[in-house]
């Protein structure tokens, strides 16, 4: 187990170093921070709301992640296939889980960088009102769980794609679809059972509680199971390619 952990960390460091050498990574980080700040302060006009809450800021994360996470994961496997290093990786003494978890960990670290960049918002406005620190922490926990699930989906689609553009657009479409799927019931009259099913499949629905500062074990379980399932399928895809 220790050896596997060291292998995963070594592979993840390589992935992170490679990402930090890419101009696109910094472009994604800059876009994320600018979009969130402009949306929160100018579009939503936070200071005119006269309320000590960051709920509106965190509520926009599902849609923003739908655009940003695909850009972080699109290179993961698609680029390896394009330059021919995927085949080389598969011949090395690494398990499928080693490879998949290393790529997941490297993308997760970039997600942490994105979220650390947002700390300036609560730190700046907290002195202006009575904010509940526990609620803000819960909102960040939700963002990490949401981001982890989105990353796992992005990695899987990258493994199934032939190029980065296909990986980005495919992940973008999937994340937008499963984020907004709960809105179908607000547009079309659906039976309650079907509406509940669509809600359960929606990333935004399960994230909503966190954005309100509510820790619900059902939502935590949903994101955890979804992340594991996507990573597991990813290992099966890699295993198939290895023995094909």
Describe this structure in words.
- The chain is mostly helical and 244 residues long.
- It has one domain.
- 80% of the residues lie in helices and 0% in strands.
- The chain has 14 helices and no strands.
- The protein starts with a helix and ends with a helix.
- The mean pLDDT is 85.
Task: Summarize this structure as a short list of keywords or feature phrases.
244 residues; mainly alpha; 14 helices
- Principal-axis shape: globular
- Oligomerization state: single chain
Helix count, DSSP H or I runs of 4 or more residues: 14
User: What is the number of strand segments?
Assistant: 0
Spans where pLDDT lies below 50 across 5 or more residues? none
Alpha-carbon distance between the termini? 28 Å
Structural class: mainly alpha
Write the layout of secondary structure elements.
Blueprint: H1 2-20, H2 23-43, H3 55-59, H4 61-73, H5 75-83, H6 85-91, H7 96-116, H8 120-125, H9 133-160, H10 164-180, H11 184-187, H12 192-201, H13 203-211, H14 217-243
Brief characterization of the structure:
By secondary structure, this protein is mostly helical. The protein has helices at residues 2-20, 23-43, 55-59, 61-73, 75-83, 85-91, 96-116, 120-125, 133-160, 164-180, 184-187, 192-201, 203-211, 217-243.
